[in-house]
DNA sequence: CATGAATGAGGGTTCATTCAT
DNA sequence: CATGAATGAACCCTCATTCAT
């Protein structure tokens, strides 16, 4: 693939991300995406062949970007607790970015029930996220700061469930200022889940 | 409202629930709903004025039904722990019913970002759910089985986040047999969240 | 099928016939057909489900109509020669009608190469036409006016080849007044093909 | 015109012939033609200015080639009967080549009704074909093997009608092995048309 | 000369909504 | 009340044509 093609695809992908986040999955049209990218409708087809393809690549692209960002974040720290906090900082990045990502991601989750391609891509994202969770929990166990008897993978899944559930709740509650609240609550709950009793 | 009208609306509502759960929010047409209800397309319009209205009432109807069912479940028990288990039993009612409800509910959550009416209805559902959570947690604190220092509403919100996050995760993982796993994990995690350390 | 539906389909079919004869197979749009029928574009889909269906039914309809007309024509006469002339009268019905039918029919023949449905319908038309030819030739043999030694089906096929070839030639030559010439030449040639030498 | 240009145009013309014979007149795109020729879309436009032009030149080219081939064929023989058989051998050259040529030619005939350029080119082809017929028939008359009283041009036209009608019929009947049957039947019918009675 | 990226008009099709019966 | 025929706007997609590189 040539460089120009790469640039164009990225440009259109970003436009699609903007368009879906603004209009929602089923209201988005190729025209919207094209307008957002500042190109003609034909160009979008030229590079992606179909609307379905754009959306597939969009889901793959944004979940991979999120994952890589989270991965980088935890790699910068050494201890389990620090990594956990860095992870949550990465996840709860900012109200604006969370709103954008989760509104689009929620659309895809809804579509996934009935679309095996979306399911597969999301499954991959889940496994990546669980992987981060496992890494942190295992380290914490080794360090002796997390309980030994709990199942690592199970807790990793619960961690992600809590995170997704929290951000979806936050998104729907429509109050920007609750972002910090959900972030703090999430961290506390996860620590409760994993740590020895602090008493 | 006459009795016949009531009957008709209920019939159409059920048809809409079936149709949306089978086809997904954006693939559903009035024709599908009408077919599923065994009536003509005109009837659907006659009683609901617009497709949007059907879907609005559908969201309201199913969230209220779920809430009432959960409320009844916890009312049958006396202690916090029993109520909590009854609540989770009601929430994780069965793979079939969870699949149906959560696939439709997820569609609505996705739509809610950009539709104030959906947001309002879902907000109401959230508050109802938090109410249940609060009731259980407060009772548990009174009984002395749950930690006193934690914030009740916050924990109620985290409970619901964990539940929704778990069922969404389960839905997308596409493995029916994980239903029990997510239910058990959810209960354990919530207990961890609320109880004194068991050591 | 209700009467009204029948009427509508006929109306649209006629409009499609007009539109294809005027614009040609690949230039015809649903809008043209709808305009010609005086209805909206949606109606055409309502009754035929797809453009392809309209055209399939059109081919079937016009070939069947032509066949029935030809059949009626020869049934009104008793002798082979009279039947043959009636057949040719029916085939060379008028410049206007021949132009219309053959321009549309030629379009379908061209499409048939690569469309099994069209092929099947045309094959049926061919067999009907050969049937007429066979009936006339067999009668002529019985009457003793046509040569005995020739193969009936082969001659029936050649008769139709001559007719189609003539009308296609006439159509392309673009001179209305040659219609009579081709009709006469066709009759003479067919008689030459079938009869004993007149010397 | 430079040599390179000539080569390029021939190359594209052949590609167009292949493409139209495979895909049909209305399904062919410039991309198909370009792909088939192993060049870019731009080249096709550069040498022909428009798609319409390619097709025009294609019709002219293939009809001229067929005509020259038929002409050469009859020039190799001396007597009318021999020339006639050579002509039919040239026309019914092979199932493969006939299928290719007639499927494309039929497409053009269908288009001709409404396109004066195609009509003109085909008219020229007709006149060339009639010329061959006339040459053969006149020779036969001179030789005394064909009937004197018949009109030469008329019979030449009927000959061509029979040939075209036969090959179109053969094409649509979709049975390769009938090729020989139609060839034989055509020769016999033409001889019947032209010769003195054999009794 | 040659490429293929870009355009945008126009196609078939879907479907919520309307309304005559 | 109930039906479903009719409408037409809006969608995705195709492709001849143009033109910068």
From TrEMBL, chains A, B, C, D:
Keywords: DNA-binding, Repressor, Transcription, Transcription regulation. Residues 29-48 bind DNA. One of its GO terms (molecular function) is DNA binding. It comes from the Bacteria. The keyword Transcription regulation applies. Residues 6-66 form the HTH tetR-type domain. PANTHER family: ACREF/ENVCD OPERON REPRESSOR-RELATED, ACREF_ENVCD OPERON REPRESSOR-RELATED. This is TetR family transcriptional regulator. It comes from Viridibacillus arenosi FSL R5-213.
